[in-house]
Prior knowledge:
heterodimer; A: alpha/beta; Rossmann fold; B: alpha+beta; 2 domains; two-stranded antiparallel sheet; 12 strands; 55% helix
Amino acid sequence: MIKATQLVxxxxxxxxxxxxxxxxxxxxxxxxxxxxxxxxxxxxxxxxYQLGLLDDPTSGEVYxxxxxxxxxxxxxxxxxxxxxxxxxxxxxxxxxELSATENVMIPLIMQGMSRSDAEKAAHMSLERIGxxxxxxxxxSQLSGGQQQRVSIARAIAHKPKIIxxxxxxxxxxxxxxxxxxxxxxELNKEGQTIVMVTHEPEYAKMTHRTITLADGNIVSDTxxx
Amino acid sequence: xxxxRDRFKNFVTALRVGWFLAIRQVKRSSYATTGLIxxxxxxxxxxxxxxxxxxxxxxxxxxxxxxxxYAGDIIISVLPKKSYIEDSPxxxxxxxxxPWIQSYSARYIIGGRVEAGYKERVRVTDAPNSAGGSITxxxxxxxENTTGVASKIIEGRFLTPSDTDSIVLxxxxxxxxxxxxxPGFSLLENVAVGDKVRITINGNIKEMTIIGIIRSKAGEVDxxxxxxxxxxxxxxxxxxxxxxxxAIALKPGVDSTTVKNTxxxxxxxxxxxxxxxxxxxxxxxxxxxxxxxxxxNVVGSIGLVVASITIFIVIFVNAITRRKFIGILKGIGINxxxxxxxxxxxxxxxxxxxxxAGLAVLYGVLVPYVDANPIKFPFSDGIxxxxxxxxxxxxxxxxxxxxxxxxxxxxxxxxxxxLDAILxxx
Lengths: 225, 426
């Protein structure tokens, strides 16, 4: 499903060059729930952004479902992100003037769905993650956990091939974090491929596989039993 | 072909999403901020229209006065190289027989001098207190019916048919109203209603009493001395009834060009110059009007630039403070066109509401108010000119400027790197 070959990402700052990702090679199969862990500055979020087509690597390739995604132009990458990928950001990333339903609807309308169909799909998605009855609430009227679940609903509403989650529990209390993780596990049980960045080892253990980064290198890549 | 169809379909989808976003952004934004932006747009629109409207109205006011106080709807005057309108009685008869005529005023006009304070003049070599002007003989009833001249009296009263030894002076002949010191240009000083003055025409002198002073802001009226037509005819020994000027007021709704052409087809066309009031307007008035219109457009254009910059700043600040959310939208696959369109739509919304509010203020308040209370300029009674076509054109220009001013900042922000925007990186 995802393949990274010789993936390099460098950041230049004045005379110095920081190598955030150092020629990474790995594959993620369909249906896997993969955690990417490491200390702060290890490159885990940077790796997620390359895999999720939010950033361009300095060199190397990212293949998504056999398509070399890194060589696509901006328009095609945007279309791929819209149709085949889903994102859950650390700070929920909801649009403040859109209600829960509207936040979920907007990528569906962008895919060409009619407003009524998009609304139905959004409601189904919100119900699925336990937010029935909060359809018209603005983000400011939801708790942190609820906002994150709206973010999840938005990410899954269009049935993407892969979900990318960047520290989805970072701003949540432990109880709410467990609810979010439970949702991910349920989605994964249904066959959803999920790539999650986390700095919580106990959450990483709940996944199929943990890739650990340090200074831009993969230091371990283990299957979790 | 399919590719073009797909591109069009994608474009329409982007517009739908942009509309979706724009409606919600406007609905859920602060009322105070939205109200303020709309207020600025309204003021900008009014600036575009009113400044030009007042400048043009200043001259239009003069045109209106020229027509109402002097020329009427049609003015018949002497042909070049002629001393008067020959066969004037036949011309007047032709006028009276036309069904469209409301009233007319036939005027005798001859150059003369008015002298005051002649009894107090000690030496013959002392400069006389005098002024030169057009001595105009009229039938006061006809004149009043045609031009409403009596309403322009500022001191005393206008002539009546029994005022055989009285005159009404135009205010441009009096230093009190025209405090200009110019060599070779003399005005009457220390003259008031009730004073006796000497009128000199072709060497003939007659003492008359000032019964009124008139100020219409039409130079052709304010530089004249009015007396009864019968008085002037006997003063200068005129035995024929040929006049020098006939002003005609038409009934409401009558086309002046049609009447002019009818007159020209008859005796009037043979012996006189027949013009509509518009045709007879002095060239300098038309030149000033064109100049002021241009000036109004220049000032308006500056206002348009200011409005564009205002919208640019509003949208730019809005977009830059929402840079992160723009990044998120792009990140989840909303294309740039949709996001830019959302901002353009917001600009259009502000401009539209501002324009509608401006139109309401303009036609509901300003135009009727200024019509009822003209602006008292020294030069004329200014009105506010706001023809609908010209106003809508300016509304269109403001809308286009707003569109562009809303698009550019949105494009600048949307073009920024998606990840940098999401993470708040510079």
